[in-house]
Structure formats: structure tokens, C-alpha cells
Write a structure and sequence with these properties.
single chain, 138 residues, mainly alpha
Length: 138
Amino acid sequence: MATDSFPPPHIGAIQPYPSPPTELGYSSTPADFNANAPQAVGAWAQRHTHDYPVPYVPAQQASNGLAVAGMVLGIVSLVLDVTVIGCFIGVPLAIIGFVLAIFGVRGPARGMATAGIVCSAIGFGVPFVLALLVALAQ
């Protein structure tokens, strides 16, 4: 079996890492570097100034876990209310969602708490309205 060996590609002479410039006020020894570090940073900052605008980072909005939980349980109760078996699960979820949303009104996310109250109230009332319609149809 013949193996051809190829020489490594010629990139150029390998140079050692250059020592830090002395004009910044520090040398390559650790003791001198620690003593002159503030001067080095100041000199670098003077040479590398720029007028880029500071990026805008929006503040994170406060969340309210009770309002979110009440809204989610209200929506789930609405979905479960369209089935006969789901009504038995949807009504207790609507009650729990209503209570959580009521406590969530005091928090920062009042819109979600209001949505939770509305969805839970509708989720609580739909099975009774459907039962009334079925009773009147017979």
C-alpha cells in the first residue's frame, strides 16, 4: 500500500505573539501590568472613542401568574363545555379560574385578569344554558 505524504501548506513563518505595546503604559510582566492597568485602559479609551447611539432595551413587563392562570383556566373551561363529559370538568375549572382571576386583578396584568373573569364566567354559565335548552326542547 503506497502512502503519499504531502508537506503541510506553506502559510509563512510562524511568528510568536507580539508583546503588548509599551505606549499604553504597561509592559509584559504581570507586576507592571497590574500597576499600570488604569492608565492602559484610559489610553485605549481615548483612542477608541465613537459616537454610536446606545441601543434601546425595552423594560420587561411585569407578569401576574394568577391572572394568567385564571385566563387559561377560563379558556380551557370554554373549550371543554362544548362536550357533555367536558362539562363536568369545565365547570370546576371555570370556578377555579374565576377565583384566580379575581385575585389577579390586584396585580400588574389587569387585562388578562379581566379576560380570565369573563372567560370563566361564560365557561361556568354555558353548561347551564345548554342544559336549559335541552330541557325546554323535550
